[in-house]
Amino acid sequence: MPTVKLFAQDGTNQGEVKLNEAVFGVEPNNQLIYDAVVSQRARLRQGTHATKTRGEVRGGGKKPWRQKGTGRARHGSMRSPIWVGGGVVFGPTPRSYGSRLPKKSRRLALKSILSQKVLDNELIVVDSIQLEQPKTKQFKAVLDQLQVTGKVLVVVDELTENIVRASNNLQNVKVSLAGRISVLDIISADQVVFTKAALNEVEEALQ
Question: CA 207, CA 202: separation in Å to the nearest integer?
Answer without folding.
Answer: 8
